[in-house]
Write a structure and sequence with these properties.
The structure holds two protein chains of two kinds. Chain A is mainly beta. In chain A, 0% of the residues lie in helices and 54% in strands. In chain A, strand 9 (85-92) and strand 10 form a beta hairpin. Chain B is built from no helices and eleven strands. Chain B has strands at 4-7, 10-13, 19-25, 32-37, 43-49, 56-57, 68-72, 75-80, 89-96, 102-104, 108-112. In chain B, strands 2, 4, 5, 6, 9, 10 and 11 form a seven-stranded mixed beta sheet that branches. A four-stranded antiparallel beta sheet of chain B has the order 1-3-8-7, with no helix packed on it. In chain B, a hairpin with a 5-residue loop joins strand 9 and strand 10 (102-104). The N and C termini of chain B lie far apart (36 Å). Classes of the chains: A mainly beta, B mainly beta. The interface between A and B is medium-sized, with 22 and 25 residues.
Chain lengths: 112, 113
């Protein structure tokens, strides 16, 4: 079982819709979770971090964490074509020296 | 967040040669990491660059192939040695912060021919 699993997509949503990206993880002791956005040919850019159960909102982005069910999700409201990118879920596993473990990424396309 | 400068941004190298990638941070950071992203794939950690001591390598990566230096808290290098076409990837430097967040340099796109 992979440590971090994401639906590879691609996921297509119309402009203005809500995009929902999901991630599950196997290490129950993981404490720190992140969502990165990566445009084609660019390096990953941190867009959200979440450490506690519940929701965390930042502008059009909402991260949701459920440690009991071992999943973390990212909602993008009012999706824009500029949101089209690959979204990477990452976490810091228990016992690691703060290295990130990444999921395989979900490619999102927002259709105008 | 820290400003991370990585160079070269890209290179095309002959097989059997070596390339050294540099990562410079504008502030002192404790944690520095090197990742590899193969075409169409996610990021895989190569090693943690430790200041003043040998790097800590992940399974599947060895010092002879990927020697790393970390002479101070703002700078690190990764060398890809004796390159083959399978080493063609994007190599990324990352720094960790006090809030556990990590930020990436611009990456080095390496093509081995």
């Amino acid at each position: 079982q992979k440590e971090v699993e994401q639906n590879s997509g691609p996921l297509s949503v119309p402009e203005g819709a809500i995009a929902s990206l999901n991630c599950t993880y196997s290490d129950r002791g993981s404490q720190s979770f992140f969502w990165y956005r990566q445009y084609s040919g660019k390096s990953p850019e941190l867009i959200m971090s979440i450490y506690s159960n519940g929701d965390k909102e930042d502008g059009r982005f909402t991260a949701q964490l459920n440690k009991a069910s071992q999943y973390v999700s990212l909602l993008i409201r009012d999706s824009q074509p500029s949101d089209s990118a690959t979204y990477l879920c990452a976490l810091i596993s228990s016992g690691s020296a703060r290295q990130l473990t990444f999921g395989s990424g979900t490619q999102l396309t927002v259709l105008p | 967040s820290a400003v991370i400068s990585q160079k070269p941004s890209r290179d095309i190298c002959q097989r059997g040669t070596s390339l050294t990638i540099q990562c410079q941070v504008d502030s002192q950071v404790t944690m520095m990491f090197w990742y590899r992203q193969q075409p169409g794939q996610s990021l895989t950690l190569i090693a943690t660059a430790n200041q003043g001591s040998e790097a800590t390598y992940e399974s599947g990566f060895v010092i002879d192939k990927f020697p790393i230096s970390r002479p101070n808290l703002t700078f690190s290098t990764l060398t890809v040695s004796n390159m083959s076409p399978e080493d063609s990837s994007i190599y990324l430097c990352s720094v960790g912060t006090g809030t556990f967040e990590a930020f990436f340099g611009q990456g080095t796109r390496l093509t081995v021919v």
